[in-house]
Every structure is written in structure tokens, then in C-alpha cells.
Amino acid sequence: MEIIKQAAMYILGFKSYVMLPIIIFLLALVFRIKLKTAIKSAFTIGIGFIGIFIVFDYFVAIITPVIQALIQKTGLHLNVLDAGWPPLAVITWSFGFAPLFIILIMAVNLTLLLTRLTKTVNIDIWNYWHFIFTGALVYNATKNIFLSAVATAVISIITLKIADLSAPMVNKFSGMEGISIPTLSAAAYFPFGIIGNKIIDKIPFINKLDANPEKMKEKIGLAGEPMIIGFVIGIILGIIGGYDARKVSELAFGIAAVIYILPKMADIVGTSLIPVSEGMKDFIKKHFPSIGKTYIALDVAVLVGFPSVVVTAILLMPLALILAFVLPGVQFIPLGDLVNIVGTVALVCTATKGNVIRSFLIGIPIIIIHLYTASNMAVMYTNLAAAVNYNLENYQGIFTSFLDGGNVIRVWLVKLFTGNNYALLLLPLFILMFFLTWKFAEKN
């Protein structure tokens, strides 16, 4: 078991922009794609992801000081640390059964493919940690490996089904054919997006507002350009944060650059996938015709650069800080995970077809849910860290994770599998939510 764990940890230690090109190259060979095309596709998808991560890291670097300035202005101090998602991932890979659960998730995916219960080929191995973390939490609370394995399988199945339902809209929104997004941190909120969008359809006046950055530039010209919108948002944030004129201008140009460059990187990824996607379709049609249409799973990172996603996230960031300040019972400042709101709202924006106003409104209850669920789960996360001998550097207290720690589907399943009565009472609500998601997504 220890040898398997070490081997798995070594492989998963590779960056996604290294691992994904290798997987894509191997798949291309399996699908009988020409060697030259396979190599080119593998390299360009890796380069595209590197570009996304470089630009996103720059975005984090320029937006974090503004967030810290806003926190200082509020004078907000709470007793739980928002450590972000990295500690949760480290804890997951420290879980003793993690290697076996990787095999379990692959087996579940293959079984669903062969039985035509999913269309997603989940090659995004790094993000398996989202599913395994659920199992680790259940095991730490119950010491029951069977319940832990079932919880891991169930959350992977739910995520695959959401990825299937959202895939046609993802393809249209992104312009990338043949992909789906089974990243739990994003997929969990596609139901909120698709149902929330239908509710807004019934609200007078608001249902007429369409603030899609791509459409706005067609209607109002230069003022509607996504980079100009980003520039204006940067100026507003800089002024609120108390920046001087020089820093305000630097922030404004920085956000404008992020909004302009990220879609270019996503386009590189999409272009590189075309030969592999077509090759996979032909291969499956020839050798496994019963499976039907399939999608290649990709990390939500391929969507975070689209203007509507970035703009929605930037608008929700200061709101999250305000809500943490005014809502009773919230125990942390959402700092460590705040910029990753771009991933959380990516499929919400997909469901609203890039309408920033609708995405922002739907994002408000999502933020509130995260603040409360992440607060509620803080002790459980801290206890799990102690169980796998993980310690945060220079911090000994209770910690949580605003976004991944507050993931509504994971938290509900963990509570359900650990015998929480409130989670059981919410079962009909979640069943209704998944049913409505299926119904509305099928219509779209």
C-alpha cells in the first residue's frame, strides 16, 4: 500500500500543465491520431494552461493587496483562518486510502461510460482530490471505509452527471467543442445557475437586462469592450481601497490586461483539443458505437478567463467581504480563497450565457452559503488535518477554506453520510434541485 501511495503521490506531484499534455498525447496515440498532430496538440494544451496560470497568478498578485486594504478599512477580525484550497488538497493526498480511491473513481467513470450513464471521460486526475476529500472526511468521522468509498463514488457520479448536463452550454459558451467540466468546485453551482436563470426569467425588468461583456461591445462600442469594463472596475476598486493615483492606474491596467489576455490562452487550449476530440469521436464510433457521444474532461481553468466570468467574480469579491462583516455567525475573513470565486461562478456564467447581472445575483446566495458552511466545517477540517499529521505553517488554530471548504454538495454529502438529521431532511430539496437542473438543461 505504501509503495502504491508513493507512486501515486509522485505522479500527482507533476503540475497539471505537465500531466495533462502527457495524458492528451497518450490518448491521441490510442485514438490513432498522427504522431505530428498528437505532439503538437500535447504541447499547445500545456502551453495554453501555463499561460492561464501565469495570467491568473498575476491577477492574484494585483487583487490581493486591494482585498487586504478593504479588510483593514473594515477592522474585521475573526477567529478562524481561511487557508484556501491548498491545505485541503494536501490533506487529501495524505489520506491513506487515496491511491485506492483514485482507482475507484476511474472504475466508476468507466462503468458509467460503458453503461451510457455518462458522456464524460474524466482524465482530469488532479481534480480527483475533490471527490477523495469527501471520502476522507467521512472516514475520519465514522472510521467506516465502506461509507467513505460510497461517499467518494456518489460525489464523483453527481459531478459527472452535472458535467454531462452542462457540457453543451459549456461548448457554446467557450467555443471549445467536445469538452466538459467535472471540477466539483465549479460543477456544484451549475444547478444554481440554471435554476436561478429560470427564476430571473420571471422577474420583471431584471429579466430584460443583459450585461454580457461580449454583447455590450457590439451595442455600445468601445465603452462595452471587456478590457474597458475591467479598467473601470480597477479604478473603482483602487479608489475604494485607498490607493493613490499611480497605484489606481496600475491596478486598472492590470485588470484590463487579465480580462483581455485570459480568453486568448483559453482559445489556445480549445484549438489544441480539436484534433484529439475529433479523434476520440471517430475511435469510439468505430470501436464502441454503443457509448455514443463523449466529452473530454478539463479543469475549470479553461473558463476562468472569459470576460463575463472575471467581471462577475471581481464584483462578488468585495461583496463577500461585506457579507462576512455583517452576517451573524460567520467565523472567518474570506481572504485565502477569495480570488478563486472565478472558478466557482464559471458554470453559473455559462448557464446565464455570460449575463453578468444575472450571474452576480445568483452568486449572492452562493457566497452566503459558502460563508456559513465553511464556518460550520472548520473544526472538522482542523481535526482531519491533525489525523493525517498535517500542520499549517506558523499557525496552530482552527482553519477552513472559503470556497472548497464551503462546497454545498460536498458538505451536504459528508453530513448525510455521517448521520446528520438536517442533511437527511434536505435530501428531497437536493433531489428536486438535480431534477430541475436536468429538466432545464435538457431544454437548453
How would you sum up this structure, described in words?
InterPro entries: EIIC-GAT, PTS_EIIC_2, PTS_sugar-sp_permease. It is a multi-pass membrane protein. Pfam families: EIIC-GAT (PF03611). The protein has one domain. It contains 19 helices and five strands. The strands form two sheets. It has a three-stranded parallel sheet. It has a two-stranded parallel ribbon with strand order 1-5. It has 444 residues and is mostly helical. It has helices spanning 2-12, 16-30, 35-74, 86-94, 98-114, 129-142, 145-174, 184-187, 190-200, 213-220, 226-240, 245-287, 307-326, 341-344, 346-351, 356-387, 408-417, 421-425, 427-443; strands at 81-82, 120-121, 179-180, 295-297, 399-400. Helices cover 70% and strands 2% of the residues. The protein is globular, with a radius of gyration of 21 Å. The model has no long low-confidence stretch (mean pLDDT 85). Helix 9 (190-200) packs antiparallel against helix 16 (356-387) and helix 11 (226-240) runs parallel beside helix 13.
